[in-house]
Amino acid sequence: MACLTDLVNLNLSDTTEKIIAEYIWIGGSGMDLRSKARTLSGPVTDPSKLPKWNYDGSSTGQAPGEDSEVILYPQAIFKDPFRKGNNILVMCDCYTPAGEPIPTNKRHSAAKIFSNPEVAAEEPWYGIEQEYTLLQKDTNWPLGWPVGGFPGPQGPYYCGIGADKSFGRDIVDSHYKACLYAGINISGINGEVMPGQWEFQVGPSVGISAGDQVWVARYILERITEIAGVVVTFDPKPIPGDWNGAGAHTNYSTKSMRNEGGYEVIKAAIEKLKLRHKEHIAAYGEGNERRLTGRHETADINTFSWGVANRGASVRVGRETEQNGKGYFEDRRPASNMDPYVVTSMIAETTIIWKP
User: Fold this and answer.
1) Along the 356 residues of the chain, how does pLDDT read in single tens digits?
2) Which of 155, 218, 277, 344 counts the highest number of beta carbons within 10 A?
3) TM segments (predicted)?
4) Is the pTM of this model over 0.90?
């Protein structure tokens, strides 16, 4: 008699050319990932060769019940680490039947910015540091914390090892390998300052692909925590008080910044970010004011600052960038629940296109 795991792990390529495509999209809250699967007649590697599909937008907060159909446009393909074989994950964005992007489709406007000739010529690179917190499913309290109580103060947990310092490593390592399998350019992981909190980094990724890869990495993480019976939260300050919040620090460079004389280009770009600080903060994630307090390695939300090697600044320039006279900088303001399509395209638009 076959076990359930035997059936879950069936290798379809032994008996059929057909594959399963899991279509992924972002729901009405802007953070709720949704997905459903369909059978295709054979392997596909080009998103433009995939069929469009539809879903009930009235059940995701994206359409009224009397006109509920929302159309999924396939945009990026990744290998499926859960079903394996030739099966795929498909990142989609969402449109009305008339072909108009729906209001929660942030990818469409981001793609327009990245296809701007000025932006395309600069080849913007991104490295996104996605922090998140693992919670015990029944209590919504961080993994490894005593129920209703608190662990010892922060200090030993950052990049820590040991059963009293590191909680959820099996989930984190599974996620790391699953992302590599999927074709996501995940560049590393580490335990964070608050116990039960972790980080993965995606990049360097160019343009719109940064957003695609972060969203699919989030999807894979949610699927793995589902299997593990653990909850993942991207809340920027899951525990009030003297505990670190969770951000999505965004490292950024353009071709001009990476070339000789790039440090002056970086300083000019930071000056532009300063002038649009309020607009960026408004788009950098909900609840970010609970995190950006000027404490716990953050700058105050109302004040823009930058510095070399300064983790308490809005924007940090690396010591190596200063020494080399070229490189990249890190925008430390985005919250862990930011939309990477919004943040990456906004940084490009402000630093390349916008003329003060």
Assistant:
1) 779 988 988 889 889 999 999 999 999 999 999 999 999 999 999 999 999 999 999 999 999 888 899 999 999 999 999 999 999 999 999 999 999 999 999 999 999 999 999 999 999 999 999 999 999 999 999 999 998 899 999 999 999 999 999 999 999 999 999 999 999 999 999 999 999 999 999 999 999 999 999 999 999 999 999 999 999 999 999 999 999 999 999 999 999 999 999 999 999 999 999 999 999 999 999 999 999 998 888 899 999 999 998 888 999 999 999 999 999 999 999 999 999 999 999 999 999 999 98
2) 344
3) none
4) yes
Locate tokens 């972790």: which residue?
198
